[in-house]
Design a protein that fits this description.
The protein has 137 residues and is of the alpha+beta class. The chain has three helices and seven strands; from the N terminus they run ααββββββαβ. 23% of the residues lie in helices and 32% in strands. β4 and β5 (91-101) form a beta hairpin. The protein is globular.
Length: 137
């Protein structure tokens, strides 16, 4: 945790977690070769979060190193359900369930996942997760 992400007592300021979550999600897409820059500016699509369920268990402190584990729980036609576990050493600090929806930046309506993105996301699916097949998949 960086100094600017903490309050005066050295405890992580929880809104900073959401910025970190965006960074982690962006890194997940980059891990299979799709940058958010490409999604937004070349493909003209957005990835808004439509729901978040955060659970806080322990405070993170100034100087802590956070370890993020992201799992895809379901891939729908245009939605993506993620669960992220955040730890400091072996302690879970917070968890989040998040739904992201792929949209057009022109009309802001949902769009089906392109085949290459859907294929990349499936790398993060556990065997019991749900997926909805779409044309071209």
């Amino acid at each position: 945790m960086r100094f600017g992400d903490c309050d005066l007592t050295g405890i992580a300021y929880h809104p900073a977690y959401l910025s970190m979550l965006v960074d982690v999600n962006e890194a997940m897409f980059a891990s299979f070769g799709i940058t958010w820059k490409e999604i937004m500016f070349e493909r003209r699509m957005g990835l808004p979060t439509v729901s978040l369920d955060l659970r806080f268990f322990k405070p993170a402190m100034y100087g802590d190193v956070l370890d993020f584990t992201v799992n895809v729980r379901a891939i729908g036609r245009s939605s993506l359900d993620l669960e992220t576990d955040v730890r400091v050493r072996s302690d879970t600090i917070w968890t989040v369930k998040q739904r992201i929806v792929l949209t057009s930046t022109e009309d802001h309506k949902s769009r089906p996942w392109p085949y290459d993105i859907r294929t990349g996301l499936t790398r993060y699916l556990p065997p019991e997760a749900e997926t909805v097949e779409t044309e071209g998949a």
